[in-house]
């Protein structure tokens, strides 16, 4: 049974500008394992990755029903890629299954998260 669904649309350049002015921004958004992935990229691809994880975590918090804040923070959610490139939620506060989709255009990243109860 579906517990919740959330979507988000994020401007990639806006996230890139924040990261440029606040170098610790990526550390605030990304878990240690996500930071390892992020550091493999540069330029536009790095901006897309960071914006994608930011947006996916926003979508997750909407699906969870709390938004980002006291109950769920950026470090509570981890999204890593399988060898095929598919993003997978590997750490989360929800005791169920989290489905995540991340899609980019030249300027924006759109994400969707669906939380599914087990059993």
Automatic annotation (TrEMBL):
InterPro entries: 4-PPantetheinyl_Trfase_dom, 4-PPantetheinyl_Trfase_dom_sf, ACPS, Ppantetheine-prot_Trfase_dom. GO terms for cellular component: cytoplasm. The keyword Nucleotidyltransferase does not apply. Its cofactor is Mg(2+). Coiled coil: none annotated. Its EC number is 2.7.8.7. Its main location: cytoplasm. The keyword Nucleotide-binding does not apply. Mg(2+) binds at residues 8, 58. Pfam families: ACPS (PF01648). Keywords: Cytoplasm, Fatty acid biosynthesis, Fatty acid metabolism, Lipid biosynthesis, Lipid metabolism, Magnesium, Metal-binding, Transferase. One of its GO terms (molecular function) is magnesium ion binding. It catalyses: apo-[ACP] + CoA = holo-[ACP] + adenosine 3',5'-bisphosphate + H(+). HAMAP family: AcpS. Belongs to the P-Pant transferase superfamily. AcpS family. This is Holo-[acyl-carrier-protein] synthase. It comes from Pediococcus ethanolidurans.
């Amino acid at each position: 049974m579906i517990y919740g669904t959330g979507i988000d649309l994020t401007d990639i350049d806006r996230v890139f500008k924040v990261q440029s002015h606040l170098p610790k921004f990526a550390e605030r958004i990304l878990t240690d394992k996500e930071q390892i992935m992020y550091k493999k990229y540069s330029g536009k691809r790095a901006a897309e990755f960071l914006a994608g994880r930011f947006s996916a975590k926003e979508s997750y918090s909407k699906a969870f029903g709390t938004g980002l804040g006291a109950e769920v923070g950026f470090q509570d959610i981890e999204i890593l890629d399988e060898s095929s490139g598919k993003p997978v939620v590997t750490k989360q506060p929800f005791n169920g299954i989290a489905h995540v989709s991340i899609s980019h255009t030249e300027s924006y990243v759109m994400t969707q998260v669906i939380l599914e109860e087990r059993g």
